[in-house]
Structure formats: C-alpha cells, structure tokens
Design a protein that fits this description.
The protein contains 16 helices and 16 strands. The protein is α/β, with parallel strands linked by helices. A seven-stranded parallel beta sheet has the order 3-4-2-1-5-6-7, sandwiched between helices. A five-stranded mixed beta sheet has the order 9-10-8-11-12, with helices on one face. 50% of the residues are buried. One of its GO terms (molecular function) is oxidoreductase activity. It comes from Desmospora activa DSM 45169.
C-alpha cells in the first residue's frame, strides 16, 4: 500500500497509534505480533488465547519485556494496563472487542465458530474486524459485512492471505480496464481427499504444524474455502464443481485458461480455480480487445497473447495483516470482503461412509472435506456448508463416501453461534 509507511510514522509522531486486539496466538497470531512489534504507529495491545501462555510467549518472542505483560480477565484492569503502556494477555476471547483501548480486532483462530463470535462481538462494539479466518468468512461473511456496513465499521479479510493477494491482482487489472478471465492460486501438495489427522501426523510433527490444519490443506478444503472467498468478493464462479485444478507452470496459464473451443479448459469466463505447480503464488489471467495494448504487452515481454498472466510468487500470510489493519483504521477500506454477497459455497462431502448417529468432527478431520460449488447449486441441493460442521452435527442417515452431505442428512444437537448467524443470513439475504 503506497505511502502506508509514511502515514504510520506520521501517526506515531503525533503521539497516536492503532491499537490492535488479537484473538488467537497460534502460528498466524505469533507472526503478526512479531511483525507489528517493529512497526511504527501500531501495537498489538491485547491478545486472547485459550492457553494464555501462548500469547505471553508470543510477546516475549517479539522482545516485549515480561514486566510489561499483564494477564487478566478483568476489562477494567486490562484497559488501565494498556493506557499505562503495558500489553494484556487473557483466555477470554470475548473481552478483546469490549476493551475501550482497542481500535481494530483481528481473528486469527481459524476456527469457524470462534471467528463468528469474535466478528459479531467486534461489530456490535463498533470495532473494525480483520478476519484471518476464511472458514468463518465464507460461511457467514456476506451477512457480517451487511451488519458491519450498517454499524459504520469495516469488515475485511487479510492482506497476505491468498484471497487478499488475489483481490489486489483483480483490482489492479480491472482498474486498468483489462478483462480478467480467471483468478487462481497454486496448490503446493497433491490432492488427497482421504487425508486426516492420523495420516498427516508425522509430516505435521516435522513441520511443527497442526495435523488437522495440514489435513485441510491436503484434502483440498482450504483451497476451496480460499477461492470461495475470492468468488464472493469478485462475483467470479467455479467453472465446474470443485474447480478444474489442472497441473502446469506459470508459462502454461494463459493457454490453460481459455475456452474449450480455443484449446483451453474453460466452459466460461470470469472463473476461480487452482493449479498444481505454481505454489505458493497467486495469479490472474487477463486479456484486452485493443490491438495497441496487445502490441505493448508483447513489447513488455508479457507473452504473445491474447491472454497474459499476472503472477505474484509469494504471500506473507499474517505478516501482511497489518496492511489490512491500517487500511481499515486510516481509510475505512477493506482488503477483501464479500462485495457480491453469497456467490459460491464450500459444501461438505463425506470423506468416508458416514453412519446414522455419527458426529462430524470439523475441518481437516476424519469425516468430511469441502467442495466449491455455486451458491445456486448449494441452494438447490440444500448442501451443508463446510463451515457448519462440528461434533454437534450428527448424521440422521447413512451417506456414502464421496457424496455431498445435505441439511436433510444431519441434525444439530446444539446450534452454535455460526449456525444461528447462518440461519439469519439465509432468511434475510
């Protein structure tokens, strides 16, 4: 974001700062705390985690002195500590949006129901909310954005996450009047629909990763969810259920993403997809009707046309989240948000044969993976959005492996907050 460095320095010179409240001190949260610790005009003043020692360690690794860290569940004590220059850690996620000394809330839990509660509470407290939680966003984000707009606050996804990086490419190309044909991301591991925490345990141990998180990458759910967010933000749709997911290199993208009658793989234009072989980057395939621009693109070594690729070979995940925090606070702008409402859905598919009475165990688990479909297809089939699965969801009937799980197939033993908000969204939007 051009000029952001100077604006943050100016903010600090004025004796002001953007006060950030964080929920979730896992890998993403820790990285964000460390990154912001070296920035001007911004501080993570309070962090919540189920295990407060995670938040404390995140601050210590960011070179915050132990004496400057206060652990408390008391809002009054927390606000006073922040005003005195200290930082706060707590196990109470609900406290973060309620703190007077917090301007922007960030959810970095990756847990759909927790993300739903954090976002809802932030908006109710008139706080900007940055979601490092795409799983919650694709499930209820269209409704949360409407509520945030009405409350006069910003609801946004994060820069650095792949959807945010893709939104930057899309807006850049569209502003310059290029026609955007496809938006996509690379997938850096082979698709394995059967991946589960047990099969991923050894690799997760080596990488110091959460086995369920790793399984959600391998079984494709994370890719589906991320491109779902891009779809809702841009209006682009999956060309086929689950997307094509071809293999290729960056140089292959302009020819792959053409209509079938032109030798490509597409049935239509303005689509979202993923490619095996270009990870960790994101890309936009673009074209133009103007001969003069084609000649200029050739001169600029962008290829022979008529399609060209804009490729960003990196995304820094939570290390870039401060950009979204600053845009929300300084300009009241989102990095990525569901501007087109509910355009696509990531629906739950049986990872194994599911039996009557069996509980669904969540993303990256043993029971279900996600598949991206159009919102119209989800509505017609009454497919269950993947963000709603949890151990409180129980099968009412047998569903064979590989089949979509529908609302008729399940019952909610208890309706979590995300289910209640989703019901509001379906009723009102």
């Amino acid at each position: 974001m051009l000029g952001l460095n100077r604006r943050l320095k100016d903010l600090q010179k004025q004796g002001a700062r953007i006060r950030v409240g964080l929920v979730g001190a896992g890998q993403m949260g820790r990285g964000m705390i460390a990154q912001i610790a070296g920035m001007a005009g911004m501080d993570v003043v309070a962090t919540a985690d189920l295990m407060p020692e995670n938040a404390r360690n995140a601050y210590l690794h960011a070179k915050v002195s132990a004496s400057a860290i206060l652990e408390t569940q008391d809002e009054g004590k927390a606000d006073r500590a922040i005003r005195s220059g200290r930082v706060v850690v707590t196990s109470d996620a609900g406290m973060i949006p309620r703190l007077e000394e917090v301007d922007v809330v960030v959810d970095a839990t990756g847990h759909p129901n927790v993300g739903a509660m954090v976002a809802w509470n932030a908006i109710m407290q008139k706080k900007h909310i940055v979601m490092l939680n795409v799983e919650a966003d694709v499930t209820i984000g269209p409704y949360l954005k409407k509520v945030a707009d009405a409350a006069g606050v910003v609801y946004t996804g994060s820069a650095g996450d792949e959807p945010g990086a893709l939104m930057e490419l899309h807006d850049f190309a569209e502003a310059l009047s290029f026609e955007v044909i496809a938006l996509g991301k690379g997938k850096n591991n082979p698709l394995d629909r059967s991946a589960n925490p047990d099969s991923c345990a050894e690799e997760a141990r080596r990488k110091k990763a959460n086995p369920k998180m790793l399984a959600s990458f391998k079984d494709g759910t994370k890719t589906m969810v991320e491109m779902n967010a891009v779809s809702n933000a841009t209006g682009f749709l999956p060309d086929v259920a689950g997307m094509h997911g071809p293999s290729g290199q960056v140089k292959d993208l302009p020819s792959l993403f053409r209509l079938r009658e032109e030798g490509g793989i597409l049935n239509g234009m303005k689509i979202v997809d993923y490619v095996n072989g270009v990870a960790p980057g994101v890309f936009a395939v673009i074209t133009t009707e103007l001969d003069e621009i084609h000649e200029e693109m050739k001169y600029l070594s962008m290829g022979e046309g008529p399609h060209y690729v804009l490729y960003r070979p990196y995304h820094l995940t939570s290390l870039e989240t401060p950009i979204s925090i600053a845009r929300a606070y300084l300009d009241r702008e989102s990095t990525i948000a569901p501007h087109y409402g509910n355009r696509s859905e990531t629906v739950a598919v049986a990872k194994k044969a599911l039996k009557l009475g069996e509980a669904l165990d969540g993303l990256g688990g043993f029971t279900a993976y996600g598949r991206l479909v159009t919102a119209q297809a989800q509505k017609e089939s009454q497919a269950l959005p993947i963000g709603l699965i949890s151990p409180d969801v129980v099968m009412k009937r047998h569903v064979p492996q590989g089949e979509i799980i529908t609302y008729d197939d399940i019952e909610f033993r208890e309706k979590r907050e995300i289910v209640k908000i989703r019901e509001l969204m379906d009723a009102l939007l």
